[in-house]
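thought: user wants a sequence for this fold. calling inverse folding tool.
action: design(structure=
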């Protein structure tokens, strides 16, 4: 198993048997309950602690094997978010920059890991996020970019970065089922596209991640509910020693979210996921602790 992060993101790993499978940056868990509402306007600070543990690996047919050394990835991500209204579009606009510190890169290409220290991983920039909040539904669309700022060396057991740029675009909604907006259902989609990896001939496959949540709000400040995600490889990887009969990797997760908003504009969020039905992926448990302060 493994530890995934994010603003945010760390999530999937590959086995020694398929050591040339390279996955992208995006890890599920960025979006949960009421996720299409967008971030606050003006300035906000966010901090995310992401922990992922995995002791099992699922092979090409989904069969389980126990890892000799469990995967433990811990990441702490801090970021600044700015927002304003765009009256002509009747939309809220947000932009963000995310600085991740982690003991291992997102989705290392080997399970022979040597997390001897914590270092800067690949920086994430969100230059464009637009949200529309109507009476009973919110809509969100966005573009994000990962810059290869983390250390990377082909074959290293302790990379902090991935060695390539990643782009993702996303769209989703949150629907409210009563006038007071206490019952909510969210469905978010993210599509990631990757450039060629430094010092290799590998261009990782594109990935589609669906994140969903169904929750209940109490007293306008406390929200809880069921959350989950589905991750699926969309295209074929270019380069690397990948068998012709290799199935597309995938993994699913389901869990719970609890979030609380104070009158002083603090938001505390806890998310927990248990993964299932993985193929060519580790299968583990992910936990996120998120603090958001708006000004």
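)
observation: tool returned 295 residues.
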């Amino acid at each position: 198993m493994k530890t995934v992060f994010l603003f945010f993101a760390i999530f999937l790993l590959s086995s020694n048997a398929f050591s040339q499978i390279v996955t992208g940056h995006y890890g599920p868990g960025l979006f949960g309950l009421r996720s299409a509402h967008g971030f606050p306007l003006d300035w906000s600070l966010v901090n995310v602690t992401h922990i992922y543990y995995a002791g099992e690996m699922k092979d090409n047919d989904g069969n389980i094997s126990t890892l000799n050394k469990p995967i433990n990835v811990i990441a702490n991500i801090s970021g600044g978010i700015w927002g304003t209204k765009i009256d002509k579009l009747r939309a809220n606009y947000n932009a963000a920059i995310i600085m991740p510190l982690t003991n291992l890169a997102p989705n290392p290409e080997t399970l022979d890991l040597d997390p001897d220290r914590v270092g800067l991983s690949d920086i994430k920039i969100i230059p464009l996020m637009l949200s529309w909040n109507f009476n009973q539904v919110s809509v969100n669309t966005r573009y994000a970019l990962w810059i290869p700022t983390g250390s990377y060396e082909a074959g290293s057991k302790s990379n902090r970065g991935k060695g390539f740029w990643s782009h993702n675009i996303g769209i989703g909604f949150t629907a409210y089922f009563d006038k007071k907006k206490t019952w909510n259902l969210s469905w978010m989609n993210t599509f990631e596209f990757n450039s060629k990896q430094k010092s290799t001939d590998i261009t990782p496959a594109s990935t589609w991640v669906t994140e969903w949540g169904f929750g209940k709000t109490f007293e306008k400040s406390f929200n809880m509910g069921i959350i989950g995600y589905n991750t699926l490889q969309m295209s074929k990887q270019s380069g690397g020693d990948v068998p012709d009969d290799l199935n597309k990797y995938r993994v699913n997760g389901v869990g719970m979210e609890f979030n609380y908003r104070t009158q002083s504009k603090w938001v505390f969020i806890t998310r927990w996921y248990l993964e299932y039905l993985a193929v060519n992926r580790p299968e583990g448990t992910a936990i996120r602790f998120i603090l958001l302060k708006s000004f």
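thought: summarizing for user.
answer: Here is the designed sequence. The chain has one domain: 16-294.
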